[in-house]
Amino acid sequence: MLEMAKDFEIIGDIANVETIAVGSTIRVIKRLKRFYGDGRWRKLKGIAKVRLPDGTVCKAEVHWYEMSAVGRKECKIKRILS
Questions:
Q1: Which of 7, 13, 41, 53 has the highest count of CB atoms within 10 angstroms of its CB?
Q2: Under a CB-based contact definition with an 8 Å cutoff, are residues 36 and 73 in contact?
Q3: Total-model pTM
Q4: What is the pLDDT of residues 20-33, one digit of tens each?
């Protein structure tokens, strides 16, 4: 199994954005509120072109948490698509 990158850069826009959880349906909602503040948290996913630490550019499915007051937090690669 390929180990997913922890440090990467999103290049351009994220396409096909979908909300996959909101509020109390997010498993880590208590931690998000403790670190970043209370509000309407959402977990989202989408497809983006990313640059990995070794310089490789590829398309990947990314997941992240978002709240309007703080923006996008804890973005991670779930799988490499190409």
A1: 41
A2: yes
A3: 0.87
A4: 999 999 999 999 99
Rounded Cα gap, residues 26 and 32, in angstroms? 9
- H-type helices in the chain, by residue range? 29-36
Tell me the C-alpha distance between 55 and 57, whole Å: 6
pLDDT single digits (tens) 40-80: 999 999 999 999 999 999 999 999 999 999 999 999 999 99
Q: Are 32 and 43 in contact (CB under 8 A)?
A: no
Task: Kindly list the strands in the beta sheet with 71-80, ordered across the sheet, starting from the edge strand earlier in the chain.
Answer: 9-22, 42-51, 57-67, 71-80
**Contact residues for 56 (Cβ-Cβ < 8 A; gap 6+):** none
What whole-number distance in Å separates Cα of residue 35 and Cα of residue 69?
Answer: 13
- State how far the Cα of 3 lies from the Cα of 16, in Å rounded to an integer: 24
